[in-house]
Write a structure and sequence with these properties.
alpha/beta, Diaminopimelate Epimerase, Chain A, domain 1, 2 domains, 6-stranded mixed beta sheet
């Protein structure tokens, strides 16, 4: 049996996955915010079951996410068609009506999802002292037990996860998950230290560098840039786009565009330009002498700037949690604008 664990994108959501990762080996992890993203991730799970696990009885575990009644019915029916079971462990009271109608929807507002998950599986497979302590830390901050002895450490852990934005989740989902689980796995190392919350807070910068460091030390910014450029280079085919005869790559909310864009182009001379689109509808263009991105920005979005560094606003961009959906929008924009440009030139 394979387990597909879909959870929220905060400390409690990732904490529940830290628990299941302790108890199980054959498990696939997915993370989602609320709304349509839950449906997208559920569809992704079903597709994976279809392609790789069709002959097994599978469990789809959902934690720290409450569903609507229509989602419950849809997910139950779709999972049944794939010979999969659904189990939801949550603590949000907004899911009360769903819990009353579906036996697989377990709701308890007195505990966070991490604790519900731990209590459920530790009853079956045994308790663990260190994991028990971690769960109490998450529970204290997630349901805001400000008088609890674990509350202050929980606050630091909360910030540790919410501030772990160095790897883009849409572009590098697996790497982002591994990074956050790496940071969470370091938390127990501080349990026996006096003023553990202060010690962990002081160590966050060092912990982040540990994840990104390879052969030699550097600033965190440079280490992150090297990591991201390495991943972009290794997965280049996935990100390639064309602008006429020029070849480029498209990123999404990559951050630090000037540094990462320039580093990537230097290390990949076969690529002519670099575009980053953001959830705020902005486009950042970078080149390294092989393309005029000022002209490119002007044609695509009426933007401009310098030959090697330009920008603009793509007003029609629709944000998405799927990189393929994002890439399709940019490709369609390029095709449309180049076609219009060619028509205008022919008229002249």
């Amino acid at each position: 049996m394979a387990i597909f664990h879909l959870s929220h994108t905060d400390l409690d959501g990732y904490g529940a996955q830290f628990v299941t990762n302790f108890y199980f080996d054959n498990i696939k992890f997915f993370n989602s915010n609320y709304g349509k993203e839950i449906n997208e991730k559920f569809a992704q799970i079903l597709n994976l079951i279809d392609t790789e696990f069709a002959n097994e009885t599978n469990l789809i575990l959902i934690t720290d996410l409450n569903l609507t009644l229509s989602q419950c019915l849809e997910f139950q029916n779709l999972a049944g068609e794939k010979n999969a079971k659904v189990l939801l462990l949550d603590h949000h009271q907004s899911g009360e009506e769903c819990a009353k109608k579906h036996g697989w929807y377990l709701l308890d507002s007195s505990r966070c999802a991490t604790k519900i998950t731990y209590d459920f599986f530790s009853d079956l497979y045994g308790k663990n002292e260190t994991l028990d302590k971690f769960v109490r830390v998450v529970n204290a901050v997630d349901i805001w037990l400000d008088k609890d002895s674990e509350f202050e450490l929980g606050k630091v852990c909360l910030g540790l996860v919410s501030g772990a934005k160095e790897i883009n989740k849409v572009m590098f989902e697996k790497e982002s998950f591994s990074y956050i689980q790496f940071l969470i796995s370091a938390i127990p190392n501080f349990f026996d230290i006096e003023n553990s919350h202060i010690a962990l807070d002081n160590a966050i910068h060092r912990l982040k560098k540990e994840f990104f460091k390879t052969e030699k030390d550097d600033t965190l910014s440079n280490l992150i840039s090297n990591f991201v450029v390495g991943k972009l280079s290794a997965q280049k085919d996935k990100f390639i786009i064309k602008f006429g005869e020029k070849t480029g790559i498209l990123t999404y909310n990559i951050g630090n565009t000037s540094v990462i864009g320039n580093d990537f182009l230097v290390k990949n001379p076969d690529v002519d330009f670099f575009i980053d689109v953001t959830s705020k509808k902005t486009l950042s263009f970078r080149a390294n002498g092989n393309a005029n991105v000022s002209e490119m920005a002007k044609i695509l979005v009426g933007g401009g700037g310098h030959i090697n560094a330009s920008g603009g606003m793509f007003a029609g961009f629709k944000d998405s949690n799927s990189y393929e959906n994002i890439k399709t929008q940019i490709i369609n924009l390029i095709d449309k604008k180049l076609s219009e440009t060619k028509e205008n030139q022919n008229e002249k």
